[in-house]
Amino acid sequence: MLVQFLAITGSMIISIAPIPKATNQTPENLHKTAFIKTALTQPQPETQTQFFQQVGIATASTITMMIMSWGVRRFQKRLSNNLLKSFESNSLDDQPITKLINQQQQHLQEVKTRLFQLAQAGIWVSGNLIILGLFPATQALQIGILTIAKIPIKLIIVGVGTYVIVRFTYAIIDHFTSTIISGGALLTPETSERLQLRISTFSGVTKSITTIIWVGAGILMSLIALGINIVPLLAGAGLVGVAISLASQNLIKDAINGFLIIFEDQYALGDMITVGSVGGLVEKLNLRMTQVRDSEGRLITIPNSEVKIVANLSSRWSRADLSIPISYQADVDKALQLIENVGLEMSQDPEWQHQILEKPNVLGVEHFSDRGIMIRVLIKTQPLKQWTVAREYRRRLKISLDAAGIYIPVPQQANWVTEF
Question: pLDDT digits over 159-176, tens only?
Fold first, then answer.
């Protein structure tokens, strides 16, 4: 202890001023001076021991970081393999809604991936900072890095946290969606398709709303991390919101009407609708607008406030409305029986019976025209299946009519010439 005390005291004296030469150079003084110089110049056992301890701690910290990083990576790979196997097993189902759910379930994998990456970065950054703090020569560097990177680290944490929360919210919504769709109690043959369309629509709209909410919360947290007082900003934002609401009344109308469209189930994603003079398959629906794809492939955008009267061609069930022309010379009763038999056989065909909900209804002779006798047939089908069923029914009916000798007439016109 005496040697350590002399070493510390001597180093302080040397740092302040050089040791003055002794005036009385007695043997005893010379011996004391030599002892002090030896204590100052020779390395002390306690100092070497502390250095070796610091090196050992740094080495152990590095090995620990490597082990933890390897463990996190291995755990991430295992979860990815399990999720891949789950997707491969579900890919055997050709239902479009199943493929959509499997695609949406990837949000959970995205959350896990980002969390694992954040854990990897946290392990290495914190470990290196701890190592820098072990040695006196690098402690200043550690303090400088923490001081400079303080604000960027806060912003990165807020940004990554907001992204992870948004993705995790998507995963929760997707899990809730898949749970409802896979629940056998709610999936009856008459409402299953409609339920899937409604849930897909609610899922997309809910994701949009939650994204706006979480991004707004992330911006506020970033301002707080920068040391900005957000109370005046919130007060100003309220006034700006009132001004914007007065200036954008059409936008508010779009949002209100969009909410009513979704809540009242006027139409949903995947429906075939007609709004005014335009129509097509609904590809996108949110609180502001509706996008439909027509038969020519054009994407038509309709503001929700403009949806006054809408015709939904695929809500719950559809119907094929057919007018069959028969020649005036044909046996009407025989033709009616043949038309009914073709519809009955098609409805019992295993390939088509799941698309035809009821036995085709032959209404009878609808009217007379220049094309012949018009017989009307109604076939109730699954949503959006009326055109496919109608095409197959016409094909089968043409073959049966030809075999029975009943022909479909062409427009005829009789001209009478009178001589005066």
Answer: 888 888 888 888 788 777
